[in-house]
Amino acid sequence: YKLAREGREVERASREITIYSIDLLQLEGRDLQIDVHCSKGTYIRTLADDLGNLLGCGAHVKTLRRTQAGVFGESDSVTLEQLEEIRQTSEHDDYSGIDRYLVPMDKAVDNLPEVSLPDVTAGWIKQGQPVLVRHLPADGLVRLYQGEQFIGIGSILDDGRVAPRRMITDQ
After folding, report:
1. Model pTM?
2. Which domains, from first to last, does the chain contain?
3. What are the residue ranges in the chain where pLDDT is below 70?
4. How far is Cα 101 from Cα 20, in angstroms, rounded to an integer?
5. What is the mean pLDDT of the chain?
6. How far apart are CA 171 and CA 169, in angstroms?
7. Dihedral-angle region of residue 36 (phi above 0 means left; psi in -120 to 50 means alpha; beta otherwise)
């Protein structure tokens, strides 16, 4: 980012992305406003450059606004002004007013299948051991729970076991 801001050409490693949709929202003269639904890792500025080259006219981004990240949309966001208002109106600097904006950690991975582990099995996976669990998806990532407690994300191995990928510890 620093080099690009200095006006230097930066080669980006090519990666596979998915553009689910591009919708034209507004066309005014030579300016257009689009809405892009894309996979993670998509460089929108590069997409604009590629579209401009494809059309033979060049293109660049004037304004970029993220309206969704994973399961979180604009309606889930909080402005700095709202946070400042909470700070100013909180008694004894306890910031309890912010609680209504907090969400459980596992909401960010709500799209992953849920796997509930018995205490013994959860203990093994917390120590880094892959474990055998019944009724797992064939592959991919899963949300791991010990009882009602979210403990992390696991990855399904080729042999059908689930291995810890990112774990949350209370220590």
Report:
1. 0.68
2. 2-65 (3.30.70.3190), 72-102 (no CATH), 106-167 (2.30.130.10)
3. 1, 92-93, 171
4. 30
5. 89
6. 5
7. beta
